[in-house]
Amino acid sequence: MSSAQVLTPGAGVGVVVGLGIGFSVLMLAIGYLGKRYGKIDATNNDEFSSASRNVQSGLIASGIVSAWTWAATLLQSSAVAYKFGISGPWWYAAGATLQVLLFAAIAAKLKTNAPHASTYLQVIRARWGNFAHRVFCCFAIATNTLVSAMLIVGGSAVVNQLTGLSIYAVIWITPLSVAIYTLTGGMRATLIADYLHTAVLISLILCFAFTVYSSSDIIGSPAKLYELLQKVPAIPGNAGGSLLTMRSREGLVFGVVNIIGNFGTVFLDQSYHQRGIASATKTATTSFIMGGLAWTPVPLLMASSLGLAARALNGFPGMAELTASDVSQGLAAPAAAVALLGKGGAVAMLCLLFLAVTSALSAQLIAVSSVITFDIYQPLAKKPTEKSLFWVSHAAVVIWAVCVGLLGVVFYKIGISMGWLYVFMGTLIGAGVAPVCAALCWKQANKAACVYGSLLGLGLAIMSWLVTAQSLFGELTVDSTGADYPVLVGNLVAIMVPILILVPASYIWPDNYDWSETRAIQAPDELDLDSPAEPSTPDVEKAGFDKSSQDGQVIATLDGKMHEHSAIPKHKHEVPDLDPKTERFTTILSIVLSVLLILLIPAFMCIPKIWSVGGLTAWTAIIIGWMFCSAGIVVVWPVVESRGALLNMASGIVSDLTGRKKM
């Protein structure tokens, strides 16, 4: 029995199953309210997968924070804080933020160059043909496989540690419960659930932070934490052996691995492209910048609180003894939560983890469903109906949920931890990053160089990773292949080889692509709209529908009146109205912010060799303040943006309850 186990297995079942059912009911309620008062129908395939492409920036930003908050965001960030000290949280947070910031430019290009596409892989197929499409489909599915596996492996380990519930039970219950609530809502309801997840998640992290730095009898202040960390045995590779320094060799190595690996998990993951597709055209870029900056303090504050507290409390009564394997599994933060708050900390940690796992896994289910529907089924079916696409997308959610359960069992049986998967992922998927960016953004990108460069990069990355592990440790084991320098070499080779091939080749033999084929993807006349979402003419007349010649869509009203609806461009080659100045400004801003996060701020943080107690206190105040700013962006702002729709919905509910017809 784990020394951190303070809850019963029944409590674990209650959290995993109870919250899963609760969110399923919530999804059904959101779907009903949207259909009843907002004329939103999740049985429409575009609404199910892309929320009709008109979601405002605040809700998209909230969805980005939720989808980017994995189990690893909370657990791995705390693990690197435990191992490397204050450098670990910064390199985790900053190293996984710049990809979201830079993705703003990708989102803008995707909205411009493929306004009707449902996946980024459709753009690759239209531009480069079937072989390239198959290659990058493999990269996309590999990305979703790694992310889904990390969520399940990390989540199940913590639930088992805190409650004693069978890991196998958690591995199967979690994806299936998430599949149920994902199926009931679709993309828009998922984004609304993400908003609720994010609000609770931020509240719980602030609760942990104030416990560590203010109210705890054991720590209770930055000064006390500083005192306890000073007593920790020297850390190899850190300046002065201290945890209170940014000058950490292993911390920097982790930062490089983290940056490279997360390029793949953002740029190759359909769930982020899905949010770009779902966003309103004029706010596609700002959504990702807002979401990225709002996400940064989530792992930063979590790790700087529970991760450092776990190290400081090592050896204290009530604190679980952590082995290197326990830390790799992400168990440092849960152990600290239990040591500080007892059963309350365990329950809060379970809820926090459940929200992170289910929200991110829901995004993965929708993403894989879209890839299977639009990149596997649709090309094979030639002329699919909207009804058939709808059923395939729903079946794909269930299929992937089962696959995730199988993956979790396999990785657990062979001893692969969340930490190992996290540092390995860049080696496997990093070679696809530059070619995909080139395919979506660069008209000169050479097809052969991008496709074969990615394959060569993958092969060389795996070879160099294994050779380095064998050379340094004399054996190939889970421990040796997950060590710092083998994964660093593998990640660097994966990201750099395709760049070194495709950039010169594209200048020497440019494609000079004009995007006409990608702008025609799924234009309004390409799909057979033989779907229940569009009633026959008599039904239209009875229900008060109107076929508007203005935008070519059915505009549904329950009262027979004309309502404004987001239009699909009349012509397949029409480009959405995206201001070039806005696009240029947000691209430059994302680059500037990335340089600040990765170069300038760490440079200033490295000035003191070892931080003073005043430095730690100031830093704590800054990141807590940053978290409150994040709450303003992703909790308050979405409500402000949607105030009109919320008031209309409230008015409709009141009218229904009082029996008065809404005018």
Quick structural gist:
With about 675 residues, the protein is mainly alpha-helical. About 75% of the residues lie in helices and about 0% in strands. The protein has one domain: Sodium/glucose cotransporter, CATH 1.20.1730.
Q: Can you count the beta strands? A: 2
Order of helices and strands: HHHHHHHHHHHHHHHHHHHHHHHHHEEHHH
Number of domains: 1
SS strand fraction: under 5%
- Mean pLDDT score: 83
- The side-by-side strand order for the widest beta sheet comes to 1-2
Structural class, judged by helices and strands? mainly alpha
Number of helices: 28
Major sheet details? 2 strands, antiparallel
C-alpha termini separation: 63 Å
Named CATH architecture: Up-down Bundle
| CATH class type | Mainly Alpha
- Oligomeric state as shown: single chain
Rg result: 25 Å
Shape: globular
Helix content: over 70%
CATH topology: Sodium/glucose cotransporter
Note poorly predicted spans.
526-574
Molecular structure report:
The protein is an all-alpha fold and 663 residues long. The protein has one domain: Sodium/glucose cotransporter (Up-down Bundle), CATH 1.20.1730. The protein contains 28 helices and two strands. Strands 1-2 form a two-stranded antiparallel sheet. A hairpin with a 6-residue loop joins strand 1 (545-547) and strand 2. Helix 3 (57-68) packs across helix 9 (167-215). Keywords: Membrane, Transmembrane, Transmembrane helix.
List the defining traits of the structure above.
663 residues, mainly alpha, Sodium/glucose cotransporter, two-stranded antiparallel ribbon, 1% strand
